[in-house]
Write a structure and sequence with these properties.
Elements: H1 13-18, H2 21-24, E1 27-30, E2 33-36, H3 42-58, E3 65-69, E4 73-74, H4 77-82, E5 87-88, E6 92-96, E7 109-115, H5 121-135, E8 139-145, E9 151-160, E10 165-172, E11 175-178, E12 184-187, H6 188-192
Parallel strand pairs: 7-8
Antiparallel strand pairs: 1-2, 3-6, 4-5, 6-7, 8-9, 9-10, 11-12
Length: about 190
């Protein structure tokens, strides 16, 4: 199941594509290394779904964009560097429309969202921040929940194309107000249900 070379420990894209769906949902892959993913709480899942619904309702008909939750976003730029397979599965992804059945890549992504769960803080705020910027995803949102699992704050990062690094935008309090990839306002009360 692992790479064509029996001595290799890295997972290739072909290896990943052969896995059953129920196993694929449990992992992400960075540079061929498998990373086990834990499911978030029901509140985590609800916030991501409600945020996706709000973005879906606000997206314009043209240009064609889609909004999905928990879909693989395959890295393009990192792969070109050393040809190893990498992908993440953001909680919410806004992307340019792709052909039905096509694999979503970071070149298609316009905005990605991670809802921070206990244990995912470092990965969401450091690792993924650097990875998504390097891949050229224009907007990255990090949703922080408070101790009661209500939305406390949403950090917005915009890509500085010259440096391929994210620059923080004023944190969103009480409501998410975005101008890009399209205008939308979503009150936190809507996300908390």
């Amino acid at each position: 199941m692992w790479a064509d070379d029996p001595g290799a420990l890295e997972m290739t894209e072909a290896d990943y594509d052969r896995l059953p769906d129920d196993l694929r949902k449990l992992i992400e892959v960075i540079d061929g290394n498998v990373i086990r993913c834990q499911s978030g709480s029901t509140e985590h899942s609800d916030v991501a779904r409600r945020l996706a619904n709000g973005l879906e309702a606000a997206k314009p008909a043209d240009p064609c964009t889609r909004v999905s939750t928990d879909v693989d976003v395959r890295f393009v730029r990192r792969r070109n560097r050393d040809d190893s397979f990498s992908f993440r599965r953001p909680d919410v992804t806004v992307y340019r429309c792709v052909e039905r059945g096509a694999k979503l890549t970071t070149e298609d992504a316009l905005l990605v969202v991670e809802v921070v769960s206990p244990g995912s803080g470092y990965t969401d705020t450091v690792d993924k921040l650097a990875e998504y910027a390097y891949e050229g995803i224009p907007v990255y949102l990090i949703v922080h929940l408070d101790a009661g699992l209500y939305v406390k704050m949403i950090q917005e990062y915009r890509l500085d194309w010259a440096t391929r690094a994210y620059r923080p935008v004023e944190p969103h309090q009480e409501a998410l107000v975005l101008e890009s990839p399209f205008p939308v306002t979503i009150p936190f009360t809507q996300l908390d249900g």
